[in-house]
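Re: that chain you flagged

S.,

Sorry for the slow reply, it's been a week of failed gels. I finally had a moment to sit down with the sequence you sent. For the record, here it is as I used it:
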Amino acid sequence: MWVSHFKRQDIFWRSAMSGGRATLLSRNKRQKGFVQPGDITAVDPLGHIVTQLFCVEAKFYKDLFMFSPVWGDKGYMDLIWHKPLAEARAANREPMVVAKQNMKPALMLTTEAGSVILGSALRHPEDGGFSLRCRFPSLDMYIYQFADMLTDVEVDILREKYARPQVEGEAV
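Prediction finished late last night. Pasting the structure tokens below so you have them in one place:
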């Protein structure tokens, strides 16, 4: 809905094997260059800019244990952050993890570079944009409320600033 200005719901879809296809194909040397990272893929050109810039993951847990790093524990961080971060870097993208826990608003996790990309496309930059809720510099993790990002970041500005021609055979 975000990329179509709330007109369409069919822009993104769950990736084949929910991102597992990227892992399988990256191990197969004959398929070099083709990567479909993340849980979410754009099935319409309107969403291509998001999947060209970000490896989008979707996570839902009863409890995210988001503050485990404060106490030095891993918790779900390997699943929620480390694995998506590694996959995004391998695909030359930034991670965008949408994480939800029971009875809490959805969060959006990204890197500092991901924050810069999204921050460069603010709908009303004079208002300061979506608010950083928490950051873990040692993990290069920046946490925002997902709804704030959807409200404050204008996807048309992302397209203007970052659109690049699609390479034949490249997944979007």
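What I noticed first: The longest strand covers residues 54-61.

Talk soon,
D.
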